[in-house]
Each structure stands twice: as C-alpha cells, then as structure tokens.
Amino acid sequence: MTTSPAPAGRTRLRRLDATDLARVAVFAAVVAVLGLPGGFTVFGSVPITAQTLGVMLAGAILGPWLGALSMTVLLALVAVGLPLLAGGRGGIGVFVGPSAGYALGWIVGALVIGLIVHAGGRKPAPWRTALGIAVGGILVIYAVGIPVQSLVTRLPLGPTALSSLVFVPGDIVKAVIATAIVTTLVRAYPRAFRRVWAVRPAEVPARDAAPVP
Q1: HEC assignment per residue over 26-89
Q2: Which of 110, 160, 174, 184 has the largest CB neighbor count within 10 A?
C-alpha cells in the first residue's frame, strides 16, 4: 500500500472554523499589544514601532489568507475608534495621515509573507521564511507606505523614500527575530501552523514510496 501526502490545497480551501477565527483574533491582538510601548517618530511623521513584528509573524504562521484577515480585522477595529495602534492611536483619521499607507500595507504584507513562506504548501524552510518576511514585511509595506506618505506630506517621492531608510535597520532586526521564532515553532511546535504540509517525492521514505507486492 502506498502512502500519499495530503493535497496541499486542502487546507487552503477548507472553511473557516472557530479555531481559525480565534487565531485571527489572537494575532490581531498580538499586533495591538506590540504597540503598547508606543513608538518614536522620525521627521515628525511616521512612528517606528514593534508592530511590524506582529505582522511578520501573522503572515508566516497563519498563512496568506488568515494572516491578511487578521490585519484587516485589526485595522477595522482601529477605524471604528479603538486605540490599537502605537501611541494609542485610533479612529478614521489614522487612514488619512502620513502613516496610512504603512498600516494598509500590513494587509498586503501579511498576504505576501504567507504566500512565500508556505509556497507550494511545503513546510516553511528557514531561507524561504527569511525571504518571505523580508519581501512582505519590509519591501511590500514600504512600497505601499512611501507613496501614500509622499502624497499626504506633499513631499517628492525620492526624498520621502530616502527619509524612510532610517526604518530599515529596525525592520531588519524584527525580520531576524520573526524568522527565528517561526523556524523554532516549525521544529518544536508545528501544530502552531495548523497545516498539512505537502511532501515532495524525494522526502517520502522508500518503504512508503514503493508498493507492497
């Protein structure tokens, strides 16, 4: 009898259940808690906070769709007035300020992180985790945030992008921390991901791959 791995698409297509919704709520709360220490502003506009670390973890652990959903839930709560962003900020005014693009970029960033980290339904590899977190958690968020900041502050795109370089060292540190956490969870507590990972043929033991006469 041959043993075949579960289809990678099965977990992506299943309906949301209570556990999924609870995990979405937990990661929205994690990002909110990471904002409690507050942040400090650079050039009087966008604050540097630890909340991006939560975005990175949400995309890498929950996967693309639940990760994006958790950030959507968080920002929806912010929009109705809850002070869940760093410094106790909340309300619809957040989404017309200089940092609006960065906050909205969390949704796209979590989505991209999940797509890369869990590409092909495979178990997250350290290199793919680091790549996904760097691309989605840094580049994508900047790609959304910088143009909006430029538009709101009425500064040229070039100088706005240049001034944003001050965020990079901190974001790299957060990316390293997130990668270490995810890699540790894969080894020590894979149930945290609540996924059935695809197994490539080369990874199936020979006794399972060969049919029994």
Answers
A1: HHHHHHHHHCCCCCEEECCCEEECCHHHHHHHHHHHHCHHHHHHHHHHHHHHHHCCCCCECCCE
A2: 110
Measured CA to CA, the distance from residue 62 to residue 47 in angstroms comes to 26
Distance (Å, rounded) from C-alpha 106 to C-alpha 174?
14
Kindly report, residue by residue over 95-131, the tens digit of the pLDDT: 999 999 999 999 999 999 999 999 999 999 999 999 9
pLDDT in tens, 157-168: 999 999 888 888
Domain boundaries, position 73: 17-197
| Domain membership flag for residue 10 | no
CATH number at residue 186: 1.10.1760.20
42 is a domain residue: yes
Residues sharing a CB contact under 8 Å with residue 190, sequence separation 6 or more, in sequence order: 123
- Residue 65's identity, in one-letter code, is W
Q: How many domains does the chain have?
A: 1
Question: Do 144 and 106 touch, CB atoms closer than 8 A?
Answer: no
Residue 211 within any structural domain of the chain: no
- Of 8 and 60, which is predicted with more confidence? 60
- Residues 174, 97: Cα–Cα separation, whole Å: 24
pTM reported for the whole predicted model = 0.84
- The answer to whether residue 162 is domain-embedded is yes
